[in-house]
Write a structure and sequence with these properties.
This protein has about 450 residues and is an alpha+beta fold. The protein has seven helices and 26 strands. The strands form seven sheets. Strands 4, 5, 16, 17, 21, 22, 23 and 24 form an eight-stranded mixed beta sheet that branches.
């Protein structure tokens, strides 16, 4: 969820409000806004801000949880070229490749109350059809992961069988190695705190095993490599508002799934729409890749098959997904790992646990007051008119769901979300193992 100040939260919760959007480019001392900041009593503005920005559509982010992938967000901002001023800026320097941000605030706010909505990289600037404005197009940091890694990051020489890049560790450790060392992206482009938390003793979601070992002997593109890693680890990527790559795991936090926002009939427009995620009850794993002198992937020595018999019997069909991993190694505990991740997948998508089918996907259109909700957040949904697919009754109360799609419509003051219900409602915190002292010995 977006971090906001109390001043922003108060104004954003008001029924009558007028959002002010600001578009900044890192190398420019000037910025562009939808309204005159001075006229609307915005204090402490650190740059010259021209009120030439048209209300942006907003950048969406969509997650395919089962595939472990995320769409590359794209943001378009159109700035009116008053008196040729923008033309002069665009023509006077190279802006492509610069970091851009979209912020939002409200009249009467301090600049410190403005909230960053997106942090992207500018890749294209073109004039509009009538040449009366310029359109700035930018994409999120995942675009950088479409880069091919040619050389060994430790010695700069080309990857080869005589110069392999060996990656071994937890999924989060490998993600950071590829991102920071392989792609040579800055530490400010990755959410290391979240990844460290997933590996911590408290969460122990991934840190209790290091079953991956990759030997990269040929050039490879980072994005598909990472997506295969996400899928085999039961996680998916998220790009936060500050433009950092983050990840979410299939399992809820050890403390339990705590909703950060409550959707209800009071903040939802119209009736929520239902869909179902595909049932997954049959996972085939191929691991222990036999690499060659010219390829980092190859034939797999080990095939594992995990079935959810209850789901197959209940729905009278097997829905298989193949997962191939060039890094999982039996000697490092990969077979246990595959079993654990398979169970996490079945818990969410096998259609049992009273879900009565594939995990429900609920689409909601909401007011702008829900703006701080982000992809990967846990939220609750209460609505008296929704059919209860689990009881046959009418109405849902505090169903805990996960946000897997976020699409803003700033021009119309609305937000669209897709919420995934995997049966987390009522689930408590994870059981922790305490310690006992016998004599002078502490046992765990």
């Amino acid at each position: 969820m977006l971090t906001v100040t109390s001043g922003f939260a108060t104004r954003n919760a008001a029924l009558a409000k007028m959002p002010i959007y600001v578009f900044t480019i890192a190398s420019l001392s000037d910025a562009y806004s939808t309204h005159d900041l001075g006229r609307y009593s915005i204090t402490g503005v650190p740059m010259t801000c021209h009120p030439w920005l048209k209300t942006p559509q907003g950048a969406s982010q969509s997650i395919d949880v089962q595939a472990g992938s995320s769409s590359i967000g794209e943001m378009t901002c159109e700035v009116v070229d008053l008196g040729g001023a923008v033309r002069s800026v665009v023509g006077g320097q190279t802006l492509e490749g610069q970091q851009v941000q979209l912020l939002v605030g409200y009249p009467g706010s301090a600049w410190s109350d403005f909230v960053v909505l997106n942090t992207y990289k500018l890749y294209k600037i073109v004039p509009s059809k009538d040449y009366g404005s310029y359109v700035f197009s930018s994409r999120d940091v995942q675009m950088d992961s479409k880069t091919t890694i040619w050389n060994h990051p430790e010695n700069g020489a080309p990857l080869s069988s005589s110069n392999p890049w060996v990656l071994q560790g937890t999924p989060c450790e490998i993600i950071q190695a590829v991102w920071l060392a392989g792609l040579m992206l800055g530490a400010d482009t990755i959410d290391r705190a979240t990844m460290a938390a997933l590996d911590s003793e408290t969460e122990s979601m991934y840190g209790n095993s290091r079953p991956y070992l990759f030997s990269m002997v040929e050039p490879f593109q980072a994005k598909p490599f990472l997506e295969k890693l996400y899928q085999s680890a039961g996680m998916y990527p998220v790009v936060d508002a500050l433009g950092r790559l983050s990840v979410r795991g299939f399992r809820a936090p050890a403390a339990g799934a705590s909703p950060v926002f409550a959707f209800s009939a009071d903040n939802v427009i119209g009736l929520p729409e239902f869909d179902r995620a595909p049932i997954l009850n049959d996972l085939q794993w191929e691991i222990d890749a036999q690499t060659s002198a010219s390829s980092s992937s190859g034939n797999y020595k080990t095939t594992l098959l995990f079935l959810n018999a209850t789901s197959i019997s209940l729905f009278q069909r097997s829905q298989q997904r193949d997962i191939q991993s060039d890094g999982l190694r039996t000697e490092l505990g990969a077979q246990w790992w595959c079993q654990e991740v398979s169970q996490r997948v079945f818990d969410r998508f096998a259609g049992t646990s009273a879900l009565r089918g594939g995990a429900p996907l609920i689409s909601v259109t909401a007011f702008l007051a829900t703006l701080p909700v982000w992809v990967g957040d846990y939220v609750s949904l209460t609505h008296p008119l929704m059919p209860n697919l689990f009881t046959g009754g009418l109405g849902l109360t505090n169903r805990v769901m996960e946000v897997v799609d976020r699409a803003p419509d700033y021009a119309n003051g609305r937000m669209q979300y897709k919420l995934l219900d995997t049966g987390l409602t009522g689930a408590g915190a994870a059981t922790s193992i305490g310690s006992a002292v016998i004599g002078t010995t502490t046992l765990y």
